[in-house]
Each structure stands twice: as structure tokens, then as C-alpha cells.
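Lecture 7 notes: from sequence to structure.
We start with the chain below.
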Amino acid sequence: MKQILDQFLNHLSVERDLTANTIESYRRDLSGYLNFLREIKVDSVGAITAEHVTGFIASLSRKGLAANSIARKLSSLRGFHKFLAAEGYCDLDPTGTLESPRQWRKLPGVLNVREMERLLKQPARDTLLGIRDKAILEFLYATGVRISELIGIKRKDLLPEVELVRVMGKGRKERIVPVGKEAIRSAERYLQEVRSKLAGEYSEDVLFLNRMGRPFSRMGLWKILRKYVNQAGITKRVSPHTIRHSFATHLLKGGADLRAVQEMLGHADISTTQIYTHLDREYIKQEHRDYHPRSKMKIPSGMERNR
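Predicted C-alpha cells for the same chain:
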């Protein structure tokens, strides 16, 4: 079974062209699955039944794994068993009739427009790193790209004359994303005044460089963001993904088409984008609660409302 797993992982790399991180996630999920099968004396992929799969899922639940983590592992199992059936290692796919565990969909945190503007004003305009950081924050908010996507953007991907950028997303799917005038202006100033001073032997063509002239790590960008969140006096928990959530929410609040936002975010399924429509409604209600004078009035204790 170990050899078959290696064949499957090679299939993901060569034929499906998945990223190394995604393949490693499959490896971890399926190694745990094969360990479970060995423990219950199942030593052939052809002998695996739906009961064995549900037994594995139940064992994960007993360990306290969250529903979304279990759903991800079940997705890995489905891909593995689909491969086994297609390659003739077994006659049936035992995962075909299994349902994913029900998951709660949490609304992501966002910054409102005022908070976002306050954050964007924090980097110094007269220092090399401040000019760079301003360009990074403007770029994140203007495009809604994931942090992993931002790290991989090259200078050649930025098309300032048409205000667009090429982005390599999940599954190595390329998309074209608009970039606003302010982000273009900040990026061009960074390119003209700063990047050449940071660039070194290992810079290659990467757009945004750290102070050592290397591509950023996720943690490096997270630290920069945290610095400016603290400077802005924002008490919410903010991550680079919060900027992405804010980008989508503000677009929809302004009347943007849902499918256009889906395309910009790089979502394969529009249902993933639809969560921002719920978020927008919650945002509007919170704004009303915070700023409408009648919403702030307290009902005297003991009063009851008649229907």
C-alpha cells in the first residue's frame, strides 16, 4: 500500500500539477489512513470497504478533530480511492456514498473602510522600507490576493499601463486581477526608488523584497502587517487574509457583481464567494447598531414588548 500511495502522490504531481504543499497534505492525510488500516489488519487496497473508511472517520472524531479537518481528510481519501478504482487496484470506490461531516461556516473578520484607510496611512512616506510597506498594503487591499500569491508575484506580472496583475493561484491556476490607481502609484514608486537598493544575488524577478533582498516569507509579511495594525490602534485580530476578506466585502457592499468578485478572488466555486454576501449583511447591521442613535437606546428593565 505504501508503494501505491507513492504512485498516487506522483500522479498528483505529474498529471494534476498540484503544488508541493498540497501534495504534502495528501501524504499526511493518507499516511494516517494507511496506519489505521494496518492496525485493523487490512493489508490490501482491494479489501478496503466503506465500513473501514467510516471507522477511520470515527477514529478522527474520537480524537477531537474539527468537522472541517475531518472533511479535508475525507476529501483526500476520496481522491485516493478514485485513483485506485481508475487504475484497477479495486473494483469499487468505498467512499462513493459517504457524506462529509456538516461544517459551520464562520464569517471571516474584516476591517471597515475607515479602519482600512487608517491602516494604509501608517507606513512612513520618506523611508525605503516605509515606501515598500505602503506599496505592499495598497497592493493587498487593491487586489485581494492571498499572501502566498503576493509572495510569488514577479515584476513581469505587474502590468501598470493597463492596471492589471497576473496572479498564480491555487492549483497553479493563473488569473488576471485589476489593480487600482493608488496601488499602481505606490508600486511604481517602490520600483523606482526602493527595489534596486534592496535587490541582491537571490532577488530574481520577485516584486516585493525583504530588507535582505530576498522574497518574503509569510511570517515576515505578517509581522509587517501586525506592526501597522498596532500603530493604527486597531484592536481587531488582523491577518493578511483579513485584508482579502475586507477587499471582497467592500466590493460587494459597493455593488460589485458576485461573479466578478469570484473571478478576482480566484474561487473555483461561487458558493465560497457567497459567504461575503452574508458578511456584508452582518457588516451593515453592525454599522447600524454602532451609529444609529435609536439603536443605542437601552430598553428600561422590566419593560416588555407587546406583539
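Points to note: Strands lie at 158-159, 164-168, 174-178. The mean pLDDT is 85.
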